[in-house]
Amino acid sequence: MAEEKKLFKVKIDGIPVEVEPGTTILNAARKIGGDIVPPAMCYYSKLQGSGGKCRTCLVKVSKGSEADPRPMPKLVASCRTTVMDGMEVANITSPEVLDARKGVVEFLLLNHPLDCPVCDQAGECSLQDLGYEHGADGTRYEFKRRTFEKIDIGDKIQLHMTRCILCYRCVYTADQLTEKREHGILGRGEVSEISTYIHKSLDNEFIGNVIDVCPVGALTDKTFRFKNRVWFLKPVDAHRDCDKCCGKTVLWLRGDEVFRVTARKDKYGEVEEFICDTCRFDKKETKDWIVEGPRNIDRHSVISQGQYVGVVKPHDALPDVLDGRQPKLLMDIHSISQVNRPEIDLSKIEGPAHSDDFKN
Amino acid sequence: MGRKLLLDKAHIENIRYYDVYRANGGYESAEKALKMTPELVLDEVKKSGLRGRGGAGFPTGMKWSFIAKPEGVPRYLVCNADESEPGTFKDRYLMEFLPHLLIEGLLISSYTLGANSCYIYIRGEYAWIPDILEEAIADAKKNGWLGKNIKGTGFDLEIYVQRGAGAYICGEETALIESLEGKRGNPRIKPPFPAIKGLWDCPTVVNNVETLAAIVPIMRIGGEEYAKYGTGKSTGTKLISACGNINKPGVYEIEMNISVEEFIYSEEYCGGIANGKRLKACIPGGSSVPIVPANLLLKTAKGETRMMTYESLSDGGFATGTMMGSGGFIVLDEDQCIVKNTLTFARFYHHESCGQCSPCREGTGWMERVLKNIEKGKGKMSDIDLLWDIQRKIEGNTICPLGDAAAWPVAAAIRHFRDEFEWHVLNPEESQVRNFGLAHYADPLEIAAPATV
Question: Given CB atoms, is A54 within the 8 Å cutoff of chain B?
């Protein structure tokens, strides 16, 4: 009989889970799922060595392990800290963690231009979600935000360095996916930037994936730029025979027109499988693809607005307890309201409706 | 006169050359060590209670015993000579005047750790020192102290000098390793620690210049004898680079049993505050450690005399104490402005942040800008609380200790000198033409009387 692998027992926010040794706290939390999963801006499970940089996934280890129950002195980056047997982690139950996370979000937004209204990433931006969930109402930063000179990195990919949060994901992608890495980080500190050395263009078979891994709108698809908002498009799963990649993609349609092609992303915003640039940029006709069906987008995402697929209407328990009768209305508002007069056609009133219109 | 172990022969003319160094008892410790087994040398180092002189004060013997020893994998010793902390210049003195002391220390340490290659990562701004070191290395090699089969023991060692390109962050051990590998000097995320996976994924020990040099006197007089120097857990001697408003700035070797007051005012060391001024504040361990006002510097919150030891300097935690740090002793007199001083440090950390993790990358620049407003008389009262909040959110949330090092000076300045910041905000015009002065910062502390039963 094969030797059974010993699983580590971990508790995250009081919820027990058993994971294999070597799992990170973040992945253990993802195994549980739900609200206790720490947000991650730089960690990407498909990219080796990523993570640890953005500090949004900080958690408190209140008990180190069964053997050494001392808590860890500092908050740790859950994406890069592996679990120990008997470890107890506090994420959303620790005010210290929430406070630190709020600080990190403020730092990330400090120099972010907040140009969401003109940003192509809006609607599928991790920083938007993070700011919405953990950010403050306003910024306390009163100084000029940093800006960068625009550089051209080719005809397919647009780089907006001002929006970048320096997660390094694109650097790892280019390093691990493509045979030639042309871009990286230049400079240091606040003014460090993603750039190519002496304005080289990014031209390579898998480089388009940097668009998908970018958590913000720093790297966007030039073929899709300013064409449409993502929530007006209908995502469908599609595939084609591709000799370079898996060929499994999501088409973003409006009518029969393919506006853009991306890889399939899971609920943590990570691609399931990377796709090649031919699929991404060159196959923009529905006839190139075999459409499988509508893409399931999380109900809370703005992209799924107007597409109520899989929404479960909450069960109304009242008829059950009333032996199938509907509850009797004590008062029908429609019968006594002065403004609810179905016979008055609002469209025929000149100008905005006024209470006087309902008095006669 | 305090007893000296490192600089006892520094006054001898031409001690930086091999012949003079050898004639004055040089390489005798190495001779002694090479006759012992590495385990016995490690025992001596452990017995000596030597603590890392780079800033953190981690026991060296313990650090050495952590190194992983897998078969067939080389081990490396890296000497951290990237001394970039503002106010610290002790390693420079050692390397310039006693290069053979360092090489002898490297030889003994490499022998103990079983490392056959040793790197000295030296700060790029020390442009002339690599020549001195390389000359010394060549001399040592010529005399059989380096190279293959050293003195017939079968132990091989090569020492390489690598110049940095001028980044403070490369003084952090994992960033140093990255830089040494030829990459961008970004700190690595720990674990794994360098003792397991360091340079080229091999077990590595990174030690400060002074720590490695201190191995030589430990071998000469023995670990137990070394531990008799100093007080308690602060054994041996420490190089202090004193600067600021003192009569005699310079590098001093102190035995860790003198008081801070003696160090500042005695003729043997700093010789008192320059121009007959009064002491206002002091940063006793290089720019990263908390600044303390005069009254807390000379006496602890409990009313005891503060000594130049690791324990006494950090007595009272960050609320009333500070740290030994790397020994960059910066003294400020009554004419100095704490706000301006804090701004200078904040500007430094802003400039030196590597930009890898967000709290440090964004927070250091923010702190500098807010401090600049206060300093220029454009500050608001809420800015002081804002600064406190920013530093609190940087501290402890970053990959490497640079974030902490940027946060502590700001935190300590606000903690102890809040009225000076407030004065800057309330008197914007006056603050541009004169300084706050000494105020109450040297007044005797009120010691809480013990509770009567």
Answer: yes
Under 8 Å between Cβ of B444 and B296: no
Q: What is the CA radius of gyration of chain B?
A: 23
d(Cα B223, Cα B227) in Å, to the nearest integer? 6
Closest chain A residue by Cα to residue B358: A54
User: Alpha-carbon distance B174 to B402, whole Å?
Assistant: 12
**Count of alpha carbons within 13 Å of B165, Cβ hemisphere only?**
10
Q: Whose CA is closest to B297, among B331, B327, B269, B254?
A: B331
Best mutation target, B179, B197, B361, B386, to test chain A (most A CBs within 10 A): B361
Residues of B in contact with A100 (CB under 8 A): 393, 397
Alpha-carbon distance values, B9 to B4, B55, B116, B288 (Å): 9, 25, 29, 31
- The distance of Cα A30 from the centroid of its chain, to the nearest Å, equals 15
Q: Are residues A295 and A152 part of one domain?
A: yes
User: Do A222 and A267 sit in the same domain of this protein?
Assistant: yes
* Those residues with Cβ within 8 angstroms of residue A131's Cβ, 6 or more apart along the chain or in another chain: A105, A109
Contact A141 B365 (CB under 8 A): no
- DSSP state letters, A269-281: S-BSS---HIIII
Q: How far is CA A336 from the centre of its chain?
A: 47
A189 at B interface, C-beta within 8 A: yes
Q: For the residues of A165-227, what is the DSSP string, one character each?
A: ----HHHHHHHHHSS---EEEES-GGG-EEEETTS----STTTTHHHHH-SSTTEEETTTTTT
Q: pLDDT (tens digit, 0 to 9) for every residue of chain B, 453 residues total?
A: 678 888 888 888 888 899 999 998 888 999 899 998 989 999 999 999 899 888 888 899 999 998 888 888 899 999 999 998 999 999 999 999 999 999 999 999 999 998 999 999 999 899 999 999 999 999 999 998 998 888 888 889 999 999 998 899 998 999 999 999 998 889 998 888 888 888 999 999 999 999 999 999 999 998 898 998 888 888 999 999 999 999 999 999 999 889 999 999 999 899 999 898 999 999 998 899 999 999 888 888 888 889 999 888 888 888 888 888 888 999 999 999 999 999 999 999 999 999 898 999 999 999 999 999 999 989 999 999 999 999 999 998 999 989 999 999 999 999 999 999 999 999 999 988 988 888 888 888 776 666 665
Structure token digits, residue A294: 């509508």
Q: Which of A25, A97, A104 to mutate to test the interface with B (most CBs of B within 10 A)?
A: A104
What are the two backbone dihedrals, phi and then psi, of residue A346, each rounded to the nearest 5 degrees?
-60, -30
Cβ-based contacts of A80 with chain B (< 8 Å): 189
Number of domains into which chain A is organized: 2
Residues A133 and A255 in one domain: yes
> Residue B305's beta-bridge partner residues?
B299
C-alpha distance from A54 to closest chain B C-alpha (Å): 5
Neighbours of A228 (CB within 10 A): 14
User: Pick from B229, B204, B209, B188: which is nearest to B356 by CA?
Assistant: B188
Residues A176 and A222 in one domain: yes
User: Distances from the Cα of B251 to the Cαs of A209, B104, B269, in angstroms?
Assistant: 55, 21, 9
Query: A38 with A161, same domain?
Result: no
DSSP for B198-225, written as a single string: -GGGS-EEEEEHHHHHHHHHHHHH-HHH
Unique residue bearing structure tokens 């092609």: A261
Phi then psi for residue B302, to 5 deg, are -85, -5
Which domains are delineated in chain B? 18-228 (3.40.50.11540), 238-307+321-331 (3.10.20.600), 338-433 (1.20.1440.230)
CA–CA gap between residue A77 and residue B372 (Å, rounded): 32
**In which domain, by residue range, is A59 found?**
8-105
